[in-house]
Amino acid sequence: MPDHFQVEHQDGGCRARTGRLTTPHGEIQTPIFMPVGTNASVKAMRPEDLTDAGAQIILANTYHLYLRPGHRLVEELGGLHRFMSWDRPILTDSGGFQVYSLTELRKITEEGVKFRSHIDGSMHLLTPELSIKVQEALGADIIMCFDECPPADAGREYVERSLAMTTRWAQRSKDAHTRRDQLLFGIVQGGRFSDLRQRSLQELQGIGFDGYALGGLSVGEEKPVMHEVMDACSDLLPADYPRYIMGIGTPEDLVEAVWRGYDMFDCVMPTRNARNGMLFTSQGRVNIKRKQYEQDQGPLDPACSCYVCRNYSRAYLRHLFRSGEILASMLNTHHNIAWYLSLMGRIREAIRQDQFEAFRKEFYHQQHTTAE
Ligand SMILES: Nc1nc2c(CCNCC3CCCC3)c3[nH]c(NCCc4ccccc4)nc3cc2c(=O)[nH]1
User: Ligand 1: does its nearest atom lie under 6 Å from the Cβ of 96?
Assistant: First the structure.
């Protein structure tokens, strides 16, 4: 059992479990959802709103912060926690995925990824060594290996070659990691091929990491494919280490992943959807711009105890959104994050009561019998 992670309770009826992850900036209760703060900010939320909404850890991004304002500047100013006045844990992604998804001009070589900045067009080379150096300069509590996420439709041949390079990059990431107080997680690749996933996992365990993430998912593959990969890896991932699935997901995805034994999740969905007026509630999704809410004096979600549901009507939230008020993004984001985090709290409680199987059935039913 590693000293930074303890499984606290294993649900008696399924693979779901609760755990405690210890980092330099504090402890994290798992399963946990991690709000995404790409440019050192969870868009439209202040740190005190985040803690008020129950956030234990947030994500930031190597790619964005390396390009702007630069990791050396953040380091000189005291690191990311001081820079953004967030004193709880931070996890940084290694940047490879963002280069792939954000830049047109990019070239992947053994050395690393050459790309043109989406900000000012300058050329850069991101390598495993530089990625680790940036994450160490930012001072994150959990950092990620530099990996390659193959396209969802990549053939077996490509995925096999890509996975071998991701393993070599993982070794280089670990060799470049000097700050032992930070936790370093490996990222399992291998596409939709269970045997390649197993190979990736075995190779990463041979190198040895503080936690293991599933990469290469939620990139457009069919749901059954995603679930199949989750199932295949769930039995192979070391049970006493944290398991993180990157980019997951919808509330249903979270419940399904917890049921399969995963612990940590991140997704831009609650924050991005909020800014588009798509709000999550106990009765399913509410598209707040719809006319049907024009005179609705009720709270967004009667079952939610967040600041927004205690103080505002759906009619008001609809008005703010249609008027393009900045407050619309603030209130919608606050609710979606609070709702996601309260869902994770209810999940942890159900696991502790050995009731997660029942919770999963009831949750699916509630989300899909909306009177919408
Ligand atoms: N290193 C790495 N990162 C991945 C990520 C980024 C995770 N969020 C990082 C945060 C750090 C800050 C920015 C993000 C992924 N995100 C997704 N899907 C998101 C899908 C999605 C996109 C938009 C809306 C909803 C879902 N798949 C991912 C796969 C990988 C991967 O293999 N390797």
Answer: yes
